[in-house]
Design a protein that fits this description.
Largest sheet: 14 strands, mixed
Distance between the termini: 62 Å
Pfam family, one: DUF4097
Number of domains: 2
Radius of gyration: 22 Å
InterPro entries: Toastrack_DUF4097
Organism: Streptomyces aurantiacus
Number of helices: 1
Strand order of the largest sheet: 1-6-7-3-9-11-13-15-17-19-25-21-24-23
Protein name: DUF4097 domain-containing protein
Strand content: over 45%
Helix content: under 10%
Shape: elongated
Length: 307
C-alpha cells in the first residue's frame, strides 16, 4: 500500500491502475472527472487544518481525513469537530467506482461510467454526464443531476433536488421539505419515475409528445397539468392527476402530502421558451389544476389555455 500525508498544496500522479475512488472531506470543494486514458491525478490547491491522508491499495484510491468515517455518516451532523477545509481535484478512469462524502463542501462529479455514491450534509452536489448508477443522499444541501443515463436515486431532508435532461431508465427521488424538479430529455427512452415529498413542491417537465402512465396524488396541496389527455380530479382535500400519455411505456408516479405538484410540457423546439407551452397556473404553488379543468366531478380531460 502506498500512502501520503498532504498538509499543503500538492500534485500527485498514480501510475498504478485505479478502479475505485473514496473521498471524504469536511468543507471546501471536491471535483472528480472521468478521463478516457492516462494515469489518475490528484491536485490539492488549498488546504487548512488537519492534513489529508491519501492511500492507494488494490486499485482503490482514498483521499480522506482519517477520523471522517464513511459508515458514521449521521455523526457528520456535529460540525464542531470539522474545522478544516480542502480544495481538491481528481482525474480518474471513466469506469472508476466513485464514493464521495462531504460535510459542507461542494462536490462536482462528471464523466464517470462506474457506480457513483455521494453523501453530504449541507454542501451542494452537482452530477454531470454520469452513465452508471447514481445515489446521492443529503440533509440540507442541494443536488443537481444533469444528463444522467444510469439509474438514479436521490434522497434529501430539506435540500432541493433537480434533474435536468434526465434519461435514466429508473428515477427515485424522495424529500421531506425540499423541492423536486425533474426535466426529462425528449430524446431519452421511457423512464420509470417515482417522486415523493411531504411538504416540498414537485414539478415535472415531460417531453411533447410524452410516453408514460401517469399517477399523481396530493393529500392537500394544489395540482396542475399542461396535458389535455390527463384527468385532474378533486377540488377539496385530496387531488389526483391520472391518465396515459402516448403508448404509456414509461411510468410517472408523484406523491406529496401538502406540497404542490405541476406537470409541465417541454416545448417541441428547444429554442422556444417554457412560458409559451406552460399555462400560468401550471406552476408549483399556483392555482390547482382542478380550477382550470372541466368540472372535476365529470371526470373529463383538462382543457388548458395556451397549449
Amino acid at each position: 500500500m502506498s500512502e501520503w500525508s498532504v498538509a499543503e498544496p500538492k500534485k500527485l500522479t498514480f501510475d498504478e491502475p485505479v478502479t475505485a475512488l473514496h473521498v471524504r472531506v469536511a468543507s471546501g470543494t471536491v471535483n472528480v472527472v472521468g478521463v478516457d486514458e492516462g494515469s489518475a491525478h490528484l491536485e490539492v490547491t488549498s488546504i487548512e487544518g488537519a492534513p489529508l491522508t491519501v492511500t492507494q491499495k488494490n486499485g482503490t484510491l482514498t483521499v480522506a481525513y482519517e477520523d471522517l468515517v464513511w459508515k458514521d455518516f449521521l455523526k457528520w451532523l456535529d460540525l464542531k469537530g470539522w474545522r478544516r477545509s480542502a480544495v481538491i481535484s481528481l482525474a480518474v478512469p471513466v469506469g472508476t467506482r466513485v464514493e464521495v462524502g462531504v460535510v459542507s463542501a461542494t462536490a462536482m462529479i462528471s464523466g464517470i461510467d462506474g457506480r457513483t455514491v455521494v453523501k453530504g450534509v449541507s454542501g451542494d452536489t452537482t452530477l454531470v454526464g454520469l452513465s452508471g448508477p447514481v445515489r446521492a443522499d443529503t440533509v440540507s444541501g442541494n443536488v443537481e443531476a444533469q444528463a444522467l443515463t444510469g439509474d438514479l436515486r436521490l434522497n434529501s431532508v430539506s435540500g432541493d433536488l433537480t434533474v435536468i435532461d434526465g434519461s435514466s431508465p429508473s428515477v427515485r427521488v424522495d424529500s421531506v421539505s425540499g423541492s423536486l424538479i425533474v426535466d426529462l430529455d425528449p430524446a431519452g427512452r421511457a423512464s420509470d419515475i417515482s417522486l415523493t415529498s411531504i411538504s416540498g413542491e414537485i414539478a415535472v417537465r415531460l417531453p411533447h409528445p410524452a410516453d408514460a402512465e401517469v399517477s399523481v396524488d396530493s393529500a392537500s396541496g394544489p395540482v396542475s397539468s399542461a396535458f389535455e389527455d390527463l384527468r385532474v380530479r378533486g377540488q377539496w382535500g385530496a387531488k389526483k392527476i391520472t391518465g396515459r400519455l402516448g403508448a404509456g411505456n414509461g411510468r410517472l408516479k408523484a406523491t406529496t402530502v401538502s406540497g404542490s405538484i405541476a406537470l409541465l410540457r417541454r416545448p417541441p423546439a428547444e429554442d422556444e421558451p417554457w412560458d409559451d407551452a406552460v399555462p400560468k397556473d401550471a406552476v408549483p404553488g399556483g392555482v390547482s389544476g382542478a380550477d382550470s379543468a372541466t368540472s372535476p366531478d365529470s371526470g373529463g380531460p383538462t382543457h388548458q389555455k395556451g397549449l
